[in-house]
UniProtKB/TrEMBL annotation:
Residues 21-143 form the Prepilin peptidase A24 N-terminal domain. Belongs to the peptidase A24 family. It comes from the Bacteria. GO terms for cellular component: plasma membrane. The chain crosses the membrane at residues 12-34, 123-143, 149-167, 176-193, 199-221, 233-266, 278-301. This is Prepilin leader peptidase/N-methyltransferase.
Amino acid sequence: MSEFIALMGQYPVIFISVCFIFAATIGSFLNVVIHRLPVMMKREWQAECNQYLQEYHPDIVKDVSLKRLEKPLDSFPERYNLVVPNSCCPKCNAAIKPWHNLPILGWCMLKGKCAQCQQAISVRYPVIELLTGLMVAVLAWHFGPTSQFLFASLLTFVLIALTGIDLDEMLLPDQLTMPLLWLGLLINLQGVFTSPTDAIIGAIAGYMSLWSVFWLFKLVTGKEGMGYGDFKLLAVFGAWLGWQMLPLIILLSSLVGAVVGIALILSKKLNQGNPIPFGPYIAMAGWIALIWGNDIVNWYLGTFL
């Protein structure tokens, strides 16, 4: 293994290229996670609600459709998880052939249409595959063949899945955020990205900072300005990068969120008062801080202080 790592260090172009191809393949799986995990969660919630109603309110009608799903829950196969059933066209349910599942290339070969029914396949699938490959390639260039690169890549995979789910469902699942939080604390026991003390303080400060803003906003306006998933995601970055990076992440995410929100309102794609997911902006800012955070902070301190 050490010889392989040394070889990759000698040929960075090969290392970056291999990482891009592997990450793009993972991106194909992330598309599955983004689509299926919310359905799995809603099925679980509905099962729990049905169990409660059957036990305590058997007279109430239990079959309630969920409007935010493209199809009713009952239309999905009984065995439905991240592995089963195999991928198929969402329109005609035709099985997707293995070579059509090739990241990026498969969508291009099909010209963005189902081979069976010729219905359009969302461009989001190759975009996520390409984005995953490019982001991991940047990590490979920045960190090289190190343990930091491996953990940063894992963090990136989950952040992409969280971003896609939050954009679709306004939801940041605990099934993804909480393992990231504990993993960040665990790896920093060895000081992979920061010290154990800074990681623990960062996790607490990350959660409490947005939690405080949430309750202050709610007391003043009577409305909820963000979800608890946002608190947990910022706690993740505190655990991974330390408390020192939290001000930068909050500043960057707020700035990008404000610019995008104003742009959407001006383009009339978003009405004032309608909620927008904040998780993608936290994820974007945290990923930037992961790579260039120290450089940005040092530049700021050297320029303005």
